[in-house]
Design brief:
The complex is a heterotrimer of chains A (about 290), B (about 350) and C (about 270).
Chain A: H1 2-5, H2 28-39, H3 74-110, H4 115-133, H5 136-147, H6 151-178, H7 181-188, H8 193-205, H9 207-211, H10 213-230, H11 241-253, H12 258-286
Helix pairs in contact in A: 2-3, 2-12, 3-4, 3-6, 3-10, 3-12, 4-6, 5-6, 6-8, 6-10, 7-8, 10-11, 10-12, 11-12
Chain B: H1 2-31, H2 36-41, H3 47-56, H4 63-75, H5 89-124, H6 129-139, H7 146-160, H8 185-191, H9 195-233, H10 235-242, H11 247-284, H12 289-298, H13 302-330
Chain C: E1 6-16, E2 23-34, E3 38-42, H1 49-56, E4 64-69, E5 72-73, H2 74-77, H3 81-90, E6 91-94, H4 108-119, H5 124-137, H6 154-166, E7 172-176, H7 184-201, E8 204-209, H8 212-218, E9 221-226, E10 229-235, H9 236-241, H10 246-258
Parallel strand pairs in C: 3-8, 3-9, 6-7, 7-8
Antiparallel strand pairs in C: 1-2, 1-4, 4-5, 9-10
The chains are: A mainly alpha (about 290), B mainly alpha (about 350), C alpha/beta (about 270).
Organism (chain A): Cellulomonas avistercoris
Subcellular location (chain A): Cell membrane
Membrane topology (chain A): Multi-pass membrane protein
């Protein structure tokens, strides 16, 4: 018995099967898109923010995805936008999860307490529910137009607006963990409440929110592009999928399909590829 | 008795929740970088003009005074005057809100109906190839946003096939709009008995409503399928079947037990659909709330925007109230509240 | 033997529920335990015995009355960092739940070392050695300590829980239903271990359980709890053979119909 115990892997999560080779291809599309985001901007055939040809050239040899109604190269812009859109979505996801962890733990640890702290936690919890009731795109539209559409404001505003999803998840988990006997055991072992919260409660309650990051990522890509689509995003001619899509829409209605189709496809691909990769990564983690 | 008291408290909470948003928008506007008065006045202004405009915008005096003035105005349904048009924001919304609401409500109703039916097929005929497709699609719920689908739909059904009408409004240009009664375009046309207008409005709604249903109903389908499968496996169902209930009664019972999470999600979905409508209105040339908000953003009209946020928030809160109450009716066990530890 | 440590519950009452609908889980209970006494708290579920046990170690604060450790109020002592450590070094607790009594993200050894690090401020290497020593003394293979809690059985986990409580060499050990969740075959072994450990180390024991014979085997004294109050107390043998309170009689009879009272002794090696 004692000989076999040494081989038990040193992780809290179930053992990862390193020999499992099925399903690895599911990660490939996202890796390719991420690669495009990283190196793409260095390999562009044209400057994505300048007029490089006559307007509305159909896709062909010189312009793979054609040019839009202003004469900008669609291919260069779609590739250049990948970095911005993925970067914003990624940062929003990370920040929203961080906010979620902090606020969720704060609420979860204090909401059933008596006195002002408990009252504040319950109030905050209600506030989060209320903020979540308003469509994210509406909140984003108003808040970002108030504070100015720069990349940092967009990231911070969207992270705050989307954080209720993560806050609720983590709060629920904290409530579960709070009932676990190992917290009492740690208290008896002399661990203080602050340390208890960060060393025992937090690590055991963030996994659900971590698994949910794929959803938050998809939502933040979609909302970022939606903001660009209605014209609240980064100012033109910054290459951004949503803005390209809305500028291409009148062209598309007139039958020049390319300037809207390619950014739309890029957007759908990015969301789909990330969901696929995330499901595979989580499947491996879970077993 | 207890249940009725709960209704009352839940309804009484609504103004309190609204007040939260009022305070929130109030703070947001005051947290805006820069002095909006200066922005509006430009380079040359007199102190009198500054003071007058400041008072006009409700930005004069101490913060508590401002808040009280703001709330007093809101209670009288005064959202201020739009900076871009000078018109009363409330009047503007009264004209535009019904159209947006109609779009979202149509999409909501059809999503609810479609998800109910599709879930029935998926759960009760799992071997059907349609079921497999729907399951795969439901798993990818929300992956493609409605505005992307809308652009694709316009390319295919308008530009290529010519089936959909031109996206330049709710009505063909040569048709006179029906007299305004309720403000809801389709409803007004039906009330006026104007078949031609109603038909035209419906044909203009098909594509936007269609893409919204396609983009969002997957959420409901997913919940229905999971809920129905659980409810069917429940001993309660077996008891019903064993006691000789009719198939319809059994199905109804299964649906009723699977409903609460779906109803809750319907409330969330309404928010998504309003958001979707706001984003898509410009694309289809609908002159609704979304278009107004976008115009307000482009002209820096923060008065109109704060009104817009409040109105959408109020709408969402009312929908969540309805959702809570419907859930209470379907499942009386649902009671809110945090347990307070005695210590 | 003279007691060097006394833990006293003085008219403790504990309410649960909201202010409007509260009920007393424990009401006005007096109890004194020392480092030389081994007291069993028995009663059916809901009788308040677990709550009383948790109040004795300060995991719950009494709504009325107070718990005193050597004459000082426990809840006051626990408020101060230094005194809190002293209280924990003196009184230890083992929880009922074997499945969740260890943090799933830490090895069992980490958890057993934890009290040494926090209560004694020992360096990691020393703490590790002491923890392994205690683990071995309880008949567990040291290599098993490197495992995560979900990879050992319930009985093994409960031994590690005992190890975690014993590493600090407490004067009083409060055990809450430590064998109830285990197989009958494992229960005896754990009870033996616990009794021997307390005798060897000179620690007092508060043994909370609904199993009358098992409690009688481990403890010298029994206190029978019913609806939040101690309805009878006395020497184990007396209570088991000649119960005075009606409720205790029912409890003893209930066990007799299942197995003879003397069955508790069957677990002796």
């Amino acid at each position: 018995m004692s000989a076999s115990t040494v081989t038990v892997p040193a992780v809290g999560a179930p053992a990862r099967d390193r020999t499992d080779r099925t399903g690895w291809w599911k990660v490939v599309p996202f890796v390719v898109i991420a690669l495009v985001a990283v190196v793409g901007p260095f390999l562009l055939p044209y400057d994505p923010t300048r007029v490089v040809a006559s307007a509305s050239v159909p896709p062909g040899g010189d312009h793979w995805f054609g040019t839009d109604s202003a004469g900008l190269d669609v291919f260069s812009r779609v590739v250049a936008a990948t970095r911005l859109n993925l970067l914003i979505a990624g940062l929003v996801t990370v920040l929203a999860t961080l906010i979620g962890a902090l606020v969720g733990i704060l609420i979860g640890m204090n909401e059933s307490r008596r006195g002002p702290l408990g009252l504040a936690a319950r109030g905050l919890s209600r506030l989060v529910d209320l903020a979540d009731a308003v469509p994210a795109i509406v909140l984003g539209l108003v808040v970002i137009s108030f504070f100015g559409a720069t990349a940092p404001t967009i990231v911070v505003c969207l992270a705050v607006i989307l954080s209720p999803i993560q806050i609720r998840l983590i709060r629920t988990e904290v409530l579960r963990v709070r009932a676990e006997a190992y917290l009492d055991a740690a208290r008896i072992a002399g661990v203080g409440e602050a340390r208890l919260t960060f060393r025992h409660v937090m690590p055991n309650s963030v996994s659900a929110a971590w698994e949910n990051t794929s959803v938050v990522f998809a939502v933040s890509i979609i909302v970022t592009a939606a903001l660009g689509f209605v014209g609240v995003g980064m100012p033109p001619p910054t290459p951004e999928w949503g803005a390209m899509l809305s500028r291409g829409a009148p062209d598309a209605v007139a039958g020049r399909w390319w300037s809207a189709t390619f950014p739309a496809a890029a957007l759908a691909l990015a969301v789909g590829a990330f969901a696929l990769a995330a499901s595979e990564v989580l499947r491996r983690r879970r077993r | 008795m207890v249940r009725q008291r709960w209704w009352a408290t839940r309804v009484a909470m609504l103004p309190a929740h609204l007040l939260v948003f009022v305070v929130l928008t109030f703070i947001l506007v005051r947290a805006m970088p820069g002095d909006p008065v200066l922005v509006l006045l430009g380079q040359n202004y007199t102190p009198q003009a500054y003071a007058a405009l400041q008072a006009d915008l409700g930005l004069a005096g101490s913060l508590p005074e401002q808040l009280v003035g703001y709330v007093v105005n809101l209670v009288q349904l005064d959202l201020g005057q739009s900076l871009m048009t000078g018109r009363e924001v409330v009047a503007e919304f009264a004209q535009r809100l019904p159209g947006t609401l109609e779009l979202a409500m149509c999409a909501l109703a059809i999503s609810a109906l479609v998800s109910c039916l599709v879930a029935y097929v998926v759960v009760l005929h799992p071997r059907n190839p349609v079921s497999a497709t729907v399951r795969a699609y439901a798993r990818a719920a929300g992956a493609i946003p409605e505005y992307v689908l809308a652009v694709a739909g316009l390319i295919v059904f308008y530009a290529a096939l010519g089936w959909a009408p031109a996206p330049v409004g709710r009505l063909d240009i040569q048709i006179l709009p029906p007299p305004r009664v309720t403000g809801f375009p389709l409803l007004d046309a039906v009330l006026a008995g104007n078949v031609e207008a109603a038909g035209s409005i419906v044909s203009h709604l098909v594509l936007p409503v269609g893409v919204m249903v396609l983009a969002q109903s997957a959420l409901l389908i997913k919940l229905w399928v999971a809920g129905l499968e659980d409810a069917i496996d429940d001993p309660v169902t077996r008891f019903r079947v064993a006691s000789g209930a009719s198939r319809a009664a059994v199905v109804l019972s299964v649906y009723r037990r699977a409903a609460p999470p779906v109803i809750t999600m319907t409330g969330t979905l309404f928010g998504y659909l309003v958001g979707g409508a706001v984003v898509m209105e410009g694309l289809f040339g609908f002159n609704g709330m979304g278009q107004y908000a976008v115009d307000a953003v482009n002209s820096g009209d923060f008065i109109a925007l704060q009104g817009f946020l409040l109105v959408v928030a109020a709408m969402s809160l009312v929908v969540f109230l309805v959702v809570d109450i419907v859930n209470m009716l379907v499942d009386p066990r649902r009671r809110p509240g945090v347990r307070v530890e005695e210590s | 033997m003279r007691a060097s440590v006394t833990l006293t519950a003085d008219k403790v009452t504990k309410f649960f529920g909201s202010r409007a609908h509260r009920h007393a889980a424990v009401s006005e209970v007096d109890l004194t335990v020392t480092d030389v006494s081994r007291i069993g708290l028995v009663g059916e579920s809901g009788s308040g015995k677990s709550t009383l046990g948790r109040m004795l170690v300060g995991l719950e604060v009494p709504s009325e009355g107070a718990v005193y450790l050597d004459g000082q109020r426990l809840d006051v002592l626990l408020r101060f960092r230094g005194q809190r450590a002293e209280v924990r070094r003196t009184v230890q607790y083992i929880a009922q739940d074997t499945t969740s009594s260890f943090d799933p993200r830490r090895t069992l050894l980490d958890s057993v070392m934890q009290p040494l690090l926090h209560l004694f401020g020992l360096p990691r290497t020393t703490a590790r050695a002491r923890a392994l020593e205690t683990i071995e003394s309880l008949g567990l293979p040291p290599a098993m300590a490197e495992r995560y809690p979900r990879y050992v059985s319930g009985g093994q986990r409960q031994r590690f829980a005992i190890a975690r409580a014993l590493v600090v060499e407490p004067k009083i050990l409060v055990c809450d239903e430590v064998v109830s969740a285990l197989d009958v075959s494992v229960q005896g072994a754990i009870l033996n271990l616990l009794k021997r450990a307390c005798l060897e180390r000179g620690a007092g024991l508060v043994f909370v359980s609904h199993g009358l014979p098992a409690t009688g085997f481990v403890c010298d004294e029994l206190a029978v709890m019913h609806r939040g109050q101690i309805v009878e107390r006395g020497g184990s043998a007396d209570v088991l053979t000649d119960p005075r309170h009606e409720y205790t009689r029912g409890l003893v009879r209930a066990h007799e119909t299942r197995r003879p009272v003397g069955a508790g002794t069957a677990v002796l090696p």
